[in-house]
Write a structure and sequence with these properties.
Blueprint (H helix, E strand, L loop, with lengths): L3 E8 L6 H14 L5 E8 H7 L3 H17 L8 E4 L5 H10 L4 H5 L2 H12 L10 H15 L5 E3 L5 H18 L10 E3 L2 H5 L22 H10 L18 H7 L4 H12 L4 H28 L1 H30 L9 H5 L9 E6 L5 E6 L5 E5 L5 H14 L9 E3 L5 H16 L1
Parallel strand pairs: 1-2, 2-3, 4-5
Antiparallel strand pairs: 6-7, 7-8, 8-9
Bound molecules: tryptophan.
The site of tryptophan has 12 residues, from strand 1 and helix 7.
Length: about 425
């Protein structure tokens, strides 16, 4: 049983800000020190090409983001740290997955749907300006994750749908080609409140699109100080008591402070500490943590060849895992070395048509469930939770014997994009197969 694998990627289209550091880089680095965890962090530079056609910007961003992770303390001996584009197995896997991904499911991806909606609202053609890269974005992301059989994927809320799509495609591939063996682990999204938490200068979530970010290393200590000076506060004067809760300044302070420092800061604000003073304290606190990192960052940026070497070593480690799995997958789909064909296989009539299957299982919540999967792995029916396995079993039995007639009373929902007619047919096929 391999160690628990955690994997995440950062799209390389810009530089990281303080919110990215608090929300992603720092927690990932801390988690990567846990003894039972194997971490995979990578620059999603193929994903960057989807959003950006400026080569110099792509070049700069992947270097800056790599330097940021190293400067922030990532142990690159322990974690597997690489550029997506250094792993040719990833685009190859992307194609194998593309061939088992339904177009309908990609039509429902939020990023694509959002772009279509914006086009329609502007009176444009639905697909105006939309590339196949954007359309297939979730499949490339699924390949990133499945290539390394990651168990857990820390991401922001907006990425959860992509992880679900990765699970779906993994399931379909396992089902179609696995012959009882699962090639892929089904990954789980991990969404920490922390990842969403850091407010920007104006109190809204810190984000480039709101133009309210505090830079991490770019511009040095001066840029940090200038940004902090622009954090919006109320207009209470020095000496006036201030209510700390709900102030962006205080929330940002908390992200770097010990519990004692948090209490002291609040007490001082309530006693009338001037906002100017408070900002100085915030600067000192943040700079105390990231100042030494910034120095390392600057040294690294002056020696890109050192970073190059680290990433080449990372790519070698990653490929040592990716290549054997991909070889297995090629074999499984029939891309094999030429050999005399087994006549039995070449001429045998096609095996009896695969029928849909019911599966009963228990989730980590302790409840019992069942689902009906089509022979291509799609979920046709999903049950509600049952306290006991017997209840689930009785419903499965009813559906298996009564077919579509039991459908309207059974505590089930149809799978994503599945029509009731298809389920009725599937149940009929199941009953026919049982009787054969
Ligand atoms: N799409 C992710 C984002 O924009 C980046 C990413 C690419 C990623 N591949 C991944 C994240 C695989 C997790 C796992 O944030």
């Amino acid at each position: 049983m391999p160690a628990h694998r955690v994997l995440t990627g950062i799209t390389t289209t810009g530089t990281l800000h303080l919110g990215n550091y608090v929300g992603a880089v720092r927690p990932c680095i801390i988690a990567s020190r846990e003894p039972a965890v194997e971490s995979f962090f990578f620059m999603a530079d193929y994903h960057a090409l989807i959003k950006c056609d400026e080569p110099d910007r792509i070049e700069a961003s992947r270097l800056q983001i790599a330097a940021t992770w190293i400067a922030a303390g990532l142990d690159t001996e322990r974690a597997v740290f690489y550029r997506q584009s250094d792993i040719p197995e990833i685009p190859e896997l992307t194609w194998l997955l593309t061939c088992v991904t339904s177009k309908g499911q990609m039509n429902r991806a939020h990023a694509y749907k959002g772009a279509v909606d914006a086009n329609l609202a502007a009176g444009e053609d639905a697909d105006a300006g939309i590339t196949m890269g954007l359309y297939s974005y979730p499949i490339l992301m699924a390949a990133d994750i499945l290539m390394f059989n990651a168990h857990r994927v820390p991401v922001g809320k907006d990425q959860v749908q992509h992880i679900e799509m990765a699970r779906d495609v993994a399931q379909r591939f396992n089902h179609l080609f696995g012959r009882g063996q699962d090639f892929f682990v089904l990954p789980e999204a991990q969404v920490d409140a922390e990842m969403e938490l850091l407010p920007g200068l104006d109190g809204r979530k810190m984000s480039k699109s709101y133009d309210n970010v505090i830079p991490l290393f770019e511009g040095g200590a001066k840029a940090l100080k200038d940004a902090i000076a622009r954090i919006v506060t109320d207009s209470k004067l020095p000496g006036e008591p201030k209510e700390p809760e709900g102030q962006a300044l205080v929330t940002i302070f908390d992200a770097f402070a010990t519990p004692e420092q948090r209490t002291t800061f609040r007490t001082e604000l309530r006693a009338g500490l001037a906002w100017g003073e408070a900002k100085q304290r915030l600067f000192d606190l943040i700079d105390g943590e990231i100042g030494p990192m910034r120095a390392r960052y600057e040294t690294l940026m002056a020696h890109p060849e050192d970073i190059e070497q680290i990433l080449q070593a990372g790519a070698a480690k990653a490929r040592a895992i990716a290549a054997p799995l991909l070889a297995q997958l090629r074999e499984a789909v029939g891309l094999r070395r030429f050999q005399p064909l087994k006549t039995a296989v070449a001429e045998a009539p096609k095996a009896k048509a695969a029928v849909p299957v019911f599966k009963q299982y228990r989730e980590t919540d302790g409840q019992f469930y069942f689902k009906l999967s089509a022979n291509d792995g799609r979920v046709l029916l999903q049950s509600q939770a049952f306290a006991g396995g017997r209840d689930a079993g009785q419903w499965v039995h009813k559906l298996k014997t009564e077919g579509a007639a039991a459908l309207s009373v059974a505590p089930v929902t149809l799978g994503d994009g599945v029509a009731a007619g298809e389920v009725a047919e599937a149940l009929a096929a199941l009953i026919a197969a049982d009787q054969a």
